[in-house]
Amino acid sequence: MPRDSRMSRILHVLIHMDRHVQQPTSAQISKMLGTNPVVVRRMMSGLRERGLVKSEKGHGGGWHLTKSLAETTLLDVYLAIGEPPLFNIGPDSEQPECLVEQAVDARMTKALSEAEVLLRERFAAITVADLAEDFEQRFAEQKPRAAASKSCA
């Protein structure tokens, strides 16, 4: 099963919107992500519904942040993209007949549920500003080599 990269892609976009490209259009974001503007609008709609971004149509329009990165947690973004499955492992069937499989599935389901609770708590404790600060630190450490490539957009 392929990885779901929507969350990391949206976090990337939010940091760029804050630091590099105020009010980008869906077309500009699609170039940054290497995808179609329709896909961008679909991804951004969840953020808009949760009050993290706003869009303006027409000439001079585009997307802009409505909450600061310091007010936006990874959990906010995770919820905005529709809470995709956090793990690619789990029970093989809904109602296994084999008692061994039932025991394995029960224990795996319990462990994964506990891990999901912990991961959501961790997401709630990390802000997008924390990630942006990590970027700034990485950039400062590589400044001599990366002066011309601060942004990857």
From TrEMBL:
This is Rrf2 family transcriptional regulator. It comes from Hoeflea prorocentri. GO terms for molecular function: DNA-binding transcription factor activity. It comes from the Bacteria. InterPro entries: Tscrpt_reg_Rrf2, WH-like_DNA-bd_sf, WH_DNA-bd_sf. SUPFAM superfamilies: Winged helix' DNA-binding domain. GO terms for cellular component: cytosol.
